[in-house]
Amino acid sequence: MTTTTAARPVAKPATMAQALGRAMRDAMAEDPTVHVMGEDVGTLGGVFRITDGLAKEFGDDRCTDTPLAEAGILGAAVGMAMYGLRPVVEMQFDAFAYPAFEQLISHVAKMRNRTRGAMPLPITIRVPYGGGIGGVEHHCDSSEAYYVATPGLTVVTPATVEDAYGLLRASIASDDPVIFLEPKRLYWSKADWSPETPAAVPGIGKALVRRAGTSATLITYGPSLPVCLEAAEAAREEGWDLEVVDLRSLVPFDEETVVASVRRTGRAVVVHEAGGFGGPGAEIAARVTERCFHHLEAPVLRVTGFDIPYPPPMLEKHHLPGVDRILDTVARLQWEN
Amino acid sequence: MTVQELPGAGASHRFTPPAWSPRTDAAPLLPDPEPYRVLGTPAADGLDPELMRRCYAELVRGRRYNAQATALTKQGRLAVYPSTVGQEACEIAAAMVLEERDWLFPSYRDTLAAVARGLDPVQALTLLRGDWHTGYDPREHRIAPLSTPLATQLPHAVGLAHAARLRGDDVVALAMVGDGGTSEGDFHEAMNFAAVWQAPVVFLVQNNGFAISVPLAKQTAAPTLAHKAVGYGMPGRLVDGNDIAAMHEVLSEAVRRARSGGGPTMIEAVTYRMEAHTNADDATRYRSDAEVEAWKAHDPVALLERELTARGLLDAEGIQAAKDAADAMAAALRDGMNADPVLDPMDLFAHVYEEQTDRLREQAEMLRAELEAGNE
Ligand SMILES: Cc1ncc(C[n+]2csc(CCOP(=O)(O)OP(=O)(O)O)c2C)c(N)n1
């Protein structure tokens, strides 16, 4: 952008859902090998309307309603990628991606490796995940632990409108398969945003300090980011000045940003909706402990969903990490031997 | 209880569903009642001598390849080898009917098909030797990596064929699977996708009687596996998998159909696995010697040799020439396998991601340090 006379694009209120749709639209317009596919993504525009208008603009061959079969969708995407296309696959809901796990783990994640780099698979797998929307059983799982435990997959999750666009564009452009976790309860979150604004956010693999602070670091991602920011505001009254780090990318994991923050603050809490045992927070806490042991004033604590199957909607508020639980945990950081 | 009697169901709610048009031509999709045969039937009069002599040479080479690979297992050079003795006609015909631009999607058992397609036998066997998972560039040979999880390669074949068609290329994908693999969900999903998309795919099911130890009768209640095609809306062909002339004809027809936009075909080749599942398997636990003996009489190599000799299309000289070529291949395979592969442990980290992650870089450094310490 060299011209100074051109009017700056006006940022208007946009939802995360719109930013995601726009990311696919722009990628499809720029690159004819980008294909969107999944259940109901065509005429309906997806059950969350994220792919709204794509079939109309690019035709059924570029935005395809597939038969209802997740292994088939992802398996076909593998073959399409083998032939030089860049499939963007929508899994309708977190828990409905499970039938595709065999394809995901045995082939998608391993193809580059087993062919010694000869056959990378540029597939983006969009998974609406997480709770907080009053969804019935099998519609609210936080399945990120399965993905991050699978070598070969890149796992990202946006928490802001700008990131939804930027990270999805980066995922589609990546030559590695990317699990793109969409926090479905943030689909309708809004921000003043314009896709024409040059991306101010970094790409895959960088964490961002969303709020600077000095007393402790909250390490989080996706649906828990707004909760953590709210908790940080509330903590001011208690005399705590909390830093909030948004991971944005679980694999690769930006250890440097996290470590630098915790070394500054000396205290850390990891927050996510997924269950705690074997969850991403366990890994992060271990890494922070390994790297920051002498800087820590207290053990690294975690606020996570309970280790239970996702609860029925009327009980989910007890399960999801909320502001109070985060503040109670922060209070426990005043560690005494 | 009729709809009208249901509480709350009023006549005003009567609704005519929109027209649904099922395929009206189900009959032509139905498989033959008996496996299709050419050798030993009047249909053999129409055989192309040149093609059949090539088939013969390939069959003899294939048999020799199986014998050599099995011997390499006994010498500890291969970790494991799933033999295709008895199934050579299927493996070879599958490779022969494809053009260079077409793609083959083999299962772990189908190294012979890959070799018949022109892949170096050593490269075809690296998975089983254990030095690398895929010993060749799939794009260069248009042979997908050998798939170990059953039937999972089938949706890939569909996707690739579909992509080729979207790009305007008349490329066909041929995917191979065993009888046991037809019970997997991926088989169903691939067949359904292929039919709905009218993808240029040929599914070749080698029904060799067993999935490790489980006989076909415990695998399916369908009259034949070929019947399964009908429900998806594609033709199912039942063919004698030991008859290379029949295999070549039926596969060629399916490839032609796919290439010209006629959609997918599923072929069940009825054959028999003469040897155990692998060297780790004890076949006497689940089948009788008598059964194996009976199949020997229907050996694919002998079947063609008999036909060609009787018709004066093959003589002792031709037989010897095929044998010599096979021996040369076996010698090269032996040499290639007796040379220890040169492996670089640092390769472990080389192809996980396009760009090394910090985590992997750290682990690679750890291994490098261990290696250096070990070398002192
Ligand atoms: C998904 C999956 N389940 C189990 C196995 C273990 N396994 C390897 S071969 C085999 C039998 C396969 O039989 P079939 O499909 O008839 O092929 P064949 O071995 O006869 O060629 C089994 C169960 C596997 N490879 N993949």
Order of helices and strands of chain B: HHHEHHHHHEHEEEHEHEHHHH
Q: Structural class, from helix and strand content of chain A?
A: alpha/beta
Low-confidence stretches of chain B: 1-11
Q: Strand order of the main beta sheet of chain A, please?
A: 3-2-4-5-7-6-12
The arrangement of helices and strands of chain A along the chain is: EHEHEHEHHEHEHEEEEHEEHEHEHH
Give average pLDDT of chain A, whole number: 95
Rounded Rg of chain B:
24 Å
Textual characterization of the structure:
The complex is a heterodimer of chains A (337) and B (376). With 337 residues, chain A is of the alpha/beta class. Chain A has helices spanning 16-30, 54-58, 70-82, 101-108, 111-114, 144-148, 161-173, 224-236, 255-265, 280-292, 316-319, 323-331, and strands spanning 12-15, 34-38, 63-65, 86-90, 124-129, 154-156, 178-183, 190-193, 208-211, 216-220, 242-246, 249-251, 268-275, 301-305. In chain A, the strands form 3 sheets. A 7-stranded mixed beta sheet of chain A has the order 3-2-4-5-7-6-12, with helices on both faces. Residues 1-5 of chain A have low confidence and may be disordered. Chain B has 376 residues and is an alpha/beta fold. Chain B is built from 15 helices and 7 strands. Chain B has helices spanning 26-29, 49-74, 88-96, 111-116, 121-124, 126-129, 138-141, 153-166, 185-197, 227-232, 244-259, 289-296, 300-310, 316-338, 358-375, and strands spanning 103-105, 173-178, 201-207, 210-211, 214-215, 236-240, 265-270. In chain B, helix 9 links the parallel strand 2 (173-178) and strand 3 (201-207). The longest helix of chain B has 26 residues, at 49-74. Classes of the chains: A alpha/beta (337), B alpha/beta (376). At the A-B interface, helix 3, helix 4 and helix 5 of A face helix 7, helix 8 and helix 9 of B. The complex binds thiamine diphosphate (TPP). The site of thiamine diphosphate has 14 residues of chain B, from strand 4.
